[in-house]
Write a structure and sequence with these properties.
The protein has 171 residues and is α/β, with parallel strands linked by helices. Helices cover 25% and strands 31% of the residues.
Length: 171
Amino acid sequence: MKTTLWATLTANGNYAQSSPENPPKKEALDDFAAHAIAAGNFIVGRRTFEGMLENGGVGGGPFADLDVVVVSGNAGDLPGVTIARSPQEALNYLQQKGHQTALIGAGADLHNAFLSKGLVDEVIFNVVPVMEGKGLNLLIDKDNYQYKHVQLLDCKPLGSGVVQLRYAMDR
């Protein structure tokens, strides 16, 4: 199964954070929805999922018929989603359901967990025209310096200054 990590980054390379003063760009959100619909699923961390629930972003609209997997070591029962205790468990579940692609949606900790285990085939970065002074990073190893070669597959503007970069990961 192909695994695609989808993330929004700032112009200075941080993992983009959103707030009432700095809401997510519509173009990035629309792009995520399009990729989730194409995959038929998405995987998120518990905190991201709870944020989506607060904003009315799960359970209806474009995500109504998707398999949503929340990766969490301590989440209780969440209605309408499947709980996985690890990245590999999430992928196993989606593969058993017959999905060809898994979309790894959001949460810096979740992204880093998939990257550190070498479970990512492709990354999609939507770079937004914002710079942040403090932010989170995507890391393939939290403790040791490492690098991983990637191959540019596509680069395109999404509108409103958002640029999408798509890379294949060497595995």
